[in-house]
Design a protein that fits this description.
The complex is a heterodimer of chains A (381) and B (103).
Chain A (H helix, E strand, L loop, with lengths): L3 E8 L10 H16 L8 E5 L12 H8 L6 E5 L5 H14 L5 E8 L6 H8 L5 H7 L3 H16 L3 H15 L13 H5 L3 E4 L1 E2 L9 E9 L8 E10 L14 H14 L8 E3 L5 H10 L8 H6 L16 H5 L6 H13 L12 E8 L4 E8 L1
Parallel strand pairs in A: 2-3, 2-4, 9-10
Antiparallel strand pairs in A: 1-7, 1-8, 4-7, 5-6, 8-11, 10-11
Chain B lengths: L2 E5 L5 E2 L14 E5 L3 E10 L12 E8 L2 E7 L11 E8 L2 E6 L1
Parallel strand pairs in B: 6-8
Antiparallel strand pairs in B: 1-2, 1-3, 4-5, 4-7, 5-6, 7-8
The chains are: A alpha/beta (381), B mainly beta (103).
Chain lengths: 381, 103
């Protein structure tokens, strides 16, 4: 069994890229990663692409071969992976598995999304495809609406306050200010969050990540002895969980996240305390809190108090989303998985604008749908 | 009248039928009627809706426990805002969606 390493990363800015399409964004990130890795297209055996809405919003399927062609990749395997918001993490998981197995030598993994060209109602509908249509879609529950249900339950079960949950937004928006790849680079105050318009009460506007366009990419290859900057993939796990809220049981815990986290830590042979920096899936403020508990960083009900007292700030005991997270960067859905790994690798290289001192072990958690998919990658620099 | 699926082997009852019971692996199940009265497990009020639901804004989506089966539905348009634990009763079914009223 080989070890899988990441030897190159690339990303576009995450933003409203009005004049750019999906393939254009994917190509920029893909080429940047290849150049960062000093890998020629001819050395790549496969392109694994994570994308969610390219078909429904962009009218284009068969996207992986089209991106491969844009990058001059010929005679390669080109496959699209879809798991809603976890699409490119699923692509990464597969690349890691096949490189470890010796089936593929070098894989370019790209996550990309183009979604801001559509009006809000349209991409709200499109994002809703990740919900179980027989229950949630049929009732008119939206994606943020699922997290509204969770937040109502979390506040009830643990007595968490509106202000404690808002602390995630205040923290992440402050972190985003220095991140040149982020869509939002301005702070928000507690009042901004708690007085913002209702989206799906109790969730308000600044509890939500913005829609965004962008792409990020990583080059995964077999570990060899002469790789100076290679980042080891120490743990890689992806699990499917109950795909609908009615089957989830306790709404304040994500079963797939618990399982993926346990598997990744077990594979890596590490404890939660070994993690120097984490990028979690803060599609909504409540999500980051629930994930810190599902990943067993904090006890049940302690996630809200932890963030409120600063435990997950850049200078806290467990820095979470020093990149600014999805709340600042935006959530170009298919791109986010690779985007999180991009940020963790920058940390492990010592090159991040919000650098965590001596960061040597990082964790990226990407969730798809309402817990239908959860992935965890643990990286060692 | 709301229906659910009950596993013949272990009795797990779920709003959405599955071919194989996730709790025990059995393949046989039966359709059962659900109670029409229950309590709110979680709730949210949708203010930003997908296109096909924009006429209903604002509307409350609720998870309701009817005995030991959790279902998802909406509160009736005229309903006051619910809380967790609010007692509710099935008032209607619209396009397959349970519509509840506070009792």
């Amino acid at each position: 069994m080989n070890k899988a390493v990441i030897v190159g990363i690339g990303s576009t800015k995450f933003a409203r890229h009005e004049d750019r399409g999906l393939v254009n964004l994917a190509g920029e990130a893909g080429l940047a990663a290849l150049e960062d890795a000093a890998v020629d297209p001819g050395q790549v055996q496969a392109l694994f692409l994570g994308n969610f809405l390219g078909g429904i919003l962009g009218g284009q399927e068969m996207i992986a071969p089209i991106v491969a062609a844009d990058l001059g990749l010929t005679d390669v395997e080109a496959v699209k992976f879809e798991g809603a918001c976890a699409s490119s993490s699923l692509a990464l998981r597969e690349a890691v598995r096949l490189v470890r197995a010796g089936d593929l030598e070098t894989v370019l993994v790209v996550g990309a999304e183009k979604m801001t060209g559509a009006p809000t109602e349209r991409f709200t509908s499109a994002l809703g495809l990740a919900l179980d249509q027989s229950t949630e879609g049929r009732t008119g529950l939206t994606f943020p609406g699922y997290w509204g249900l969770v937040m109502s339950r979390y506040m009830h079960d643990f007595g968490a306050t509106r202000e404690q949950i808002a602390a995630v937004s205040v923290k992440n928006r402050a972190n985003g200010v220095k991140n040149e790849y982020a869509q939002f680079r301005s702070e928000v105050t507690f009042d901004d969050v708690t007085q913002s318009r209702a989206v799906c009460s109790p969730i308000q506007l600044y509890d939500c990540c913005p829609a965004s366009d962008g792409a990020a990419a990583v080059v995964v290859t077999r570990a060899r002895t002469n790789q100076d900057d290679a980042v080891l993939v120490a743990g890689s796990a992806a699990i499917a969980g109950p795909p609908r809220a009615v089957d989830q049981g306790d709404l304040t815990l994500i079963p797939a996240c618990v399982s993926a986290g346990d598997r990744a830590f077990d594979e890596a042979g590490l404890d939660r305390s070994d993690i120097d920096v984490a990028e979690l899936h803060d599609c909504f403020t409540m999500a980051e809190i629930v994930e810190t508990e599902s990943l067993r960083f904090f006890d049940r009900g302690e996630g809200a108090t932890a963030v409120a007292k600063g435990a997950t700030k850049v200078d806290g005991e467990l820095p979470v989303n020093p990149s600014g997270g999805l709340l600042s960067k935006g959530h170009p859905v298919g791109a986010t998985g690779c985007g999180q790994v991009f940020e963790i690798v920058r940390q492990l290289r010592g090159e991040h604008p919000n650098q965590i001192p001596d960061a040597s072990v990082g964790l990226a958690h990407n969730a798809g749908g309402t817990g239908g998919v959860a992935t965890v990658h643990i990286l060692k620099g | 009248m709301l229906k659910a699926n009950r596993c013949w082997s272990c009795g797990r009852t779920a709003a959405v039928a599955t071919r194989v019971c996730p709790a025990c692996g059995a393949r046989d199940s039966e359709e059962v009627e659900l109670a029409e009265a229950g309590t709110v497990y979680a709730h949210t009020t949708i203010d930003v809706a997908p296109t096909e639901f924009s006429d209903l804004i604002p509307y409350q989506v609720v998870l309701v426990d009817l005995d030991d089966t959790r279902v998802e539905g909406r509160m009736a348009a005229s309903s006051e805002t619910v809380e967790i634990g609010s007692p509710v009763r099935l008032a209607d079914i619209e396009d397959g969606v349970p519509i509840f009223q506070l009792t």
